[in-house]
């Protein structure tokens, strides 16, 4: 099956695409359904997004959720985690709930900030990245959190905010009966403007396009500046690595810029041409990488020879020191023998004198 992605004005064309629930949020939904099956209650889904986002809500209703809330917002893609948390705060204010369950992070941006900020805005306790729960009641819940070194066991008073790890459970599949019933379940639509969301003064959400790709610096200089006034020599220039040499060389920087333009314009012919050039650029970098690898191996070999030479010098020095000690020991033995000989000789000289004296 071929995946055909169209890009127009720097954005993916969503015509024909379907919205799905994030795998982490789907795990949170399954956890909520299991809780209500054990202790009773209702599961309400909540999402922020354009009209098509209702597709993911209907899927959640088909899995077993009881009702849903859709905050219609056409500029969700240009909104960050802080803004999402402020919008959710406004939606949840004045509503009754015991537990807010979400995935531990977003599946598209990988950000895990919205739920913790929402807990702070609502003044609620929070536990993140849970892998198990137990002892659910209307007053508290026991949570098992995946910590850095071990599993942490916490008891949290309700209401509160919990984010789940995708290892918590295996989400169920929607049955045909569930899909049919989902069409009749209530789905509340909320107008974002009617919420009166206020962001802190000084914050403005703007679109910032990617900067133009360019290369600045000397392409022939064989050194790299690592701090002010300090540079180290290198064995390859930017010309050789990324800008290429000769007629077959590839200017990688210009190529990336051209590829970006081709993608934005959805020009299939230009994209195919740039892909071929990318292969040449890759081979160019790999060749230089191999050359650098050979130099590194030579450096390691030289280092090994130097270490061997150093070891040999230390061994010779040790032999010399041992020789000096041996010579010193011999000198001491000779001196000791001379001293003993002198003492013996003196004793023999003194002994007759004493004999004569005694007589």
Explain how this protein is built.
With 359 residues, the chain is an alpha/beta fold. It folds into 2 domains: 7-195, 3-Layer(aba) Sandwich (Rossmann fold), CATH 3.40.50.620; 215-359, no CATH class. It has 9 helices and 12 strands. The strands form 4 sheets. A 5-stranded mixed β-sheet has the order 5-9-6-7-8. The chain has a 3-stranded parallel β-sheet with strand order 3-4-10, sandwiched between helices. Helix 2 packs across helix 5 and helix 3 crosses helix 4 (114-122). It is flat and about 120 Å long. The model is unreliable at 213-217 and 348-359 (pLDDT under 50).
CATH architectural arrangement of the largest domain: 3-Layer(aba) Sandwich
Query: Strands of the largest sheet, in order across it?
Result: 5-9-6-7-8
Order of helices and strands: EEHEHEHEHEEEEHEHEEHHH
Secondary structure: helix percent:
40-55%
End-to-end distance: 133 Å
Assembly of the depicted chains: single chain
Q: What is the averaged pLDDT score?
A: 78
The CATH superfamily of the largest domain bears the name HUPs
**Largest β-sheet summary:** 5 strands, mixed
Radius of gyration: 40 Å
Structural class: alpha/beta
How many helical elements?
9
What's the helix and strand layout?
Blueprint: E1 7-8, E2 11-12, H1 23-39, E3 44-49, H2 54-63, E4 67-72, H3 81-92, E5 99-103, H4 114-122, E6 126-134, E7 140-146, E8 151-157, E9 160-164, H5 176-182, E10 187-191, H6 192-195, E11 223-227, E12 230-233, H7 238-243, H8 252-265, H9 268-358
Parallel strand pairs: 3-4, 4-10, 5-9, 6-9
Antiparallel strand pairs: 1-2, 6-7, 7-8, 11-12
Helix pairs in contact: 2-5, 3-4, 8-9
């Amino acid at each position: 099956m071929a995946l055909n992605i169209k890009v127009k004005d720097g954005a993916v064309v969503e015509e024909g695409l379907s919205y799905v629930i994030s795998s982490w949020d789907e795990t949170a939904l399954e956890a909520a359904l299991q809780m209500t099956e054990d202790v009773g209650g209702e599961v309400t889904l909540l999402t922020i997004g354009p009209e098509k986002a209702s597709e993911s809500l209907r899927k959640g209703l088909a899995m077993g959720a009881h009702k849903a809330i859709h905050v219609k917002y056409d500029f969700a893609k240009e909104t960050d985690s802080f803004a999402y948390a402020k919008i959710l705060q406004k939606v949840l204010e004045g509503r009754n709930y015991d537990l807010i369950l979400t995935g531990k992070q977003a599946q598209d941006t990988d950000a895990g900030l919205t739920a913790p900020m929402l807990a702070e805005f609502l003044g609620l306790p929070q536990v993140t990245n849970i892998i198990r729960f137990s002892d659910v009641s209307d007053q508290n819940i026991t949570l098992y959190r995946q910590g850095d070194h071990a599993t942490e066991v916490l008891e949290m008073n309700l209401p509160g905010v919990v984010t789940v790890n995708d290892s918590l459970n295996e989400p169920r599949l929607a049955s045909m009966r569930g899909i049919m019933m989902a069409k009749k379940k209530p789905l509340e639509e909320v107008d974002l403007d009617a919420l009166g969301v206020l962001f802190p003064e000084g914050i403005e959400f703007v679109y910032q396009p990617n900067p133009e790709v360019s290369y600045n610096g000397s392409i022939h200089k064989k050194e790299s500046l690592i701090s002010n006034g300090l540079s180290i020599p290198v064995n390859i220039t930017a010309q050789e690595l990324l800008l290429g040499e000769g007629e077959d060389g590839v200017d990688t920087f210009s190529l990336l810029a051209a590829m970006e333009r081709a993608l934005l314009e959805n020009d299939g012919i230009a994209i195919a041409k740039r892909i071929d050039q990318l292969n040449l650029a890759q081979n160019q970098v790999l060749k230089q990488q191999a050359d650098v690898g050979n130099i590194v191996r030579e450096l390691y070999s030289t280092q090994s020879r130097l270490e061997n030479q150093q070891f040999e010098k230390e061994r010779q020095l040790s032999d010399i020191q041992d020789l000096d000690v041996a010579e010193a020991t011999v000198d001491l033995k000779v001196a000791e023998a001379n001293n003993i000989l002198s003492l013996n000789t003196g004793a023999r000289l003194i002994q007759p004198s004493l004999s004569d004296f005694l007589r």
